[in-house]
User: What shape does this take?
Amino acid sequence: MNRKRASVTAAVAGTVVGVAGLAVLAMPASAGSAPVLPAVSAEQLVQSVLTTKSVPAFAGTVRGTNNLGLPSVPGLGEAGKFLANSSAEVRIWSDGEGRGKLELPSNSGSESIVYDGKTLWDWKSSDHTVRKSEQSPAEHREHPQAASDPATAAKQIIELISKDSTVKVDGTATVAGRSVYQLVLAPKPSERTMLREVRISVDAETKLPLQLSVYGNGSADPVLQIGFSELTIGAQDASLFQFTPPANATVTTAEPKQDKAKDFPGDAASKTVGEGWDTVLVGKLPTTGATDKSGRSQDPMALLKQIAKPVSGAWGSGYTIGASIGNAVVTQDGRYAVGAVPLQVLTNALEQSK
Amino acid sequence: MTAAVLDRPLRAPLGRLLAAEVRWTLRRPRTIIALAALALAPVLMGIGIAIAGEGSRGGPGGLFGALAGNGFVLPIVAMYMLLPVLLPLLGSMAAADALAGESAHGTLRGLLLAPVSRGRLLAVKAFGVAVVVWLGVLVVALSGVVTGLVLVGSNGLITLSGTTLSVADALLRIGLAVLWVGFQVFAVASIALAVSAWTEHPLVVLAVALAFVLVSAVVSALPNTEWIQPYLLPTGWMSLTDVLRDPVPGTELLRSTVKALCYSVIGLSLAYGRLSTKDG
Assistant: This one.
């Protein structure tokens, strides 16, 4: 019967439309053809990035993905999540004049950090606490959270490695719906590193670095990636950058911050061996046993025995932890070497610095 | 002249048909009992949280912690807790009665023989299911708002982002949540409606629909299933807590709504395909 066939056709068509809709939804957002942009040399691009001093007003979501392949450390709890392969998202707003807001969603609630030009507010929804600290904008820029801003992170990397790398512009792409140039930094052949390349996506219009991807040897997917998954450039509502502690919150005022870097014992004793991509950080672990949150003292060697594999050589013996783009060695007498290099380079560095 | 009038097929106005279907659905004692039981759930949660007091922590997305002194969060928590099983159960029950139940009683035959297009019949049935679904969600939300205000108390909604919303804004957020949850539940109910068209045993419909929800939830929790996760309904259900953030991150809410609509289109198409080829 004709009518019956027509209705079956309609039913099949409807099902196909539904399944196609699901498939479109499941497709990664970045899929699409590369946009056509005027050609630019690597030097011009790097320079335009470095000269872009002002960050425009924007709202966006920054997504960080980690495929380092580090061993999972028992007893770290929430922090251990970021070591193992994972991804995390941060929502970020800026008004282009120094005020900003960060929101870090997590399973145990949400943390909001608002800087209104004078005061830094840190709200945790899980225990209704607000930490308030008066900071000058310069100090605010040094806040550790600033590293999650891809603009800052990419700039630091360009400055650091331009002399030992080949830098080129490798086509265009789309990041967070915006056209970008892809700046590729690859190690020169003489460098003994496990990194293949670092890819920085620079927004064609605003010259803001939108994404930073680190690739290791022998893998097509980035080992580390931080970048905007959503970005809207434009004026933001001023009320976003104001914070009034809610009625049920406990407000504490933070003491002026001590310079914590000086207190870190390992830092003073560490030095670098080699330069460029095969830089190795060599140093001595603090001799006092570290204590965890609950006050129990932890023996770092006991922890290492659980997660690392033993190695030995002319330089001594110890334990090594390997990740997909680097290695770390800790010797029995408490020295350590870390770098984005093969194990051999680390042990050479240990020998040299003996 | 009279003959000329009778030659034209008589068509009942659509409004009357829809009203009749809704009356028919809502007058079933099981529908009323299910709605009443759903209304009880937020009350029980409210009592539990009032007893636990300020010390309550944990819960989905840390929501129990956010509940203290913040009554407008209770309807959202209640919807979040009921979404994985009980609300889909209500939707599947309505869908099971709509076609398979009528089939079991032999009353579907009458409807199929009547000079009504099968598409129209399915539309009316789907409307009845949708009314039960959104009514169920609304009942949970209303009961949650009342319980929250009475047991926990509130001067507006404190969002997870730390901002305080006015009562009107809070009700708007809850309304948004009702709409969103309704789409999710209706997606499951549409799949149930498709099964309902293929069988004459309402129990089979319930079993298949619940299995569909539970298996989806289990698969989405398994490791190494990332490739299939974007296709599953329950992977988007966590985003309900996004309505408690300020400003609302709309991407995930919108994506899961479109996903639910896709499932609804698939379910209703399959149901239509079966219903239109069914012999009286």
